[in-house]
From TrEMBL:
Assigned keywords, A-Z: Signal
Signal peptide: 1-23
Residue ranges annotated for the DUF5780 domain, each copy included: 80-198
Protein known as: DUF5780 domain-containing protein
Native species: Hungatella effluvii
Length: 222
């Protein structure tokens, strides 16, 4: 596994005043948890419409931020994901897709599971996350990336070169709630068609987060 989870000790103020989009880690060791989060528009210029803000405040959405970081102890690169549950139900599991791009916005084929020598390079990685996230809480996770220059002694992957990932796009395919309800993202296939294996303008990659995904639950229909 190449996933590392870290506890969030402070209240997370999620910046939710950007446009709503259809969507917008396994580690060497696992720790994890979630924390209560608040939504706030005060810290960011409000560019969203009233309907978009209402979707968040009324509790029928999830949001996330993903950024490239380095582990303090080793300097190895990883993707840090903060995911917040703005629904009134507990999330029991999620299935989401990850895509990676270099600094020029070109798509990258990665060996996503760096401890699995049989894992083949691919543009996408579909991951099943079984962390429980209660209403109003945020879960933090990290996905370790390969860097041949920093991971000395590690089995060579590809040409053994440095990490080329500069940006990553994540999107939920489905969300399972603790009461058994399963929500499937109706925009997932369009998202995958638009981004998988395709070059993306750097400005679009820079502005992809925070992403907000509106979720329609059975008791909210109609």
């Amino acid at each position: 596994m190449n996933r590392k989870r870290v506890m969030t000790a402070a209240v997370i103020f999620v910046l939710l005043c950007v446009g709503v989009i259809s969507c917008a880690p396994e580690a060497l060791g696992v720790t994890g948890g979630s924390s209560v989060a608040e939504t706030s528009c005060a810290a960011n210029p409000c560019e969203s419409t009233g309907n978009q803000k209402q979707a968040v405040v009324s509790g029928n959405s999830v949001s996330r931020r993903v950024e490239l970081r380095e582990y303090e102890d080793s300097g190895w690169p990883y993707l840090y994901d903060t995911y917040t549950n703005h629904t009134d139900k507990t999330i029991s599991s999620r299935q989401y897709c990850m895509l990676a791009y270099d600094k020029e916005g070109q798509p990258l084929k990665l060996q996503w599971y760096i401890m699995d020598s049989s894992d083949k390079p691919a543009y996408d990685c579909l991951y099943d996350d079984h962390d429980e996230i209660i209403p109003g809480a945020a879960a933090d996770s990290g996905w370790t990336l390969y860097d041949g220059e920093k991971m000395t002694g590690w089995p060579k992957i590809g040409d053994g070169g440095p990490n080329r990932v500069a940006y990553a796009l994540y999107c939920d395919r489905k969300i399972v709630f603790s009461d058994g309800e399963v929500w499937e993202n109706p925009g997932y296939e369009d998202w995958l068609e638009k981004y998988k294996g395709k070059s993306v303008p750097v400005e679009e990659l820079k502005n992809y987060y925070p992403s907000i995904l509106a979720v329609t639950l059975q008791d909210q229909d109609g």
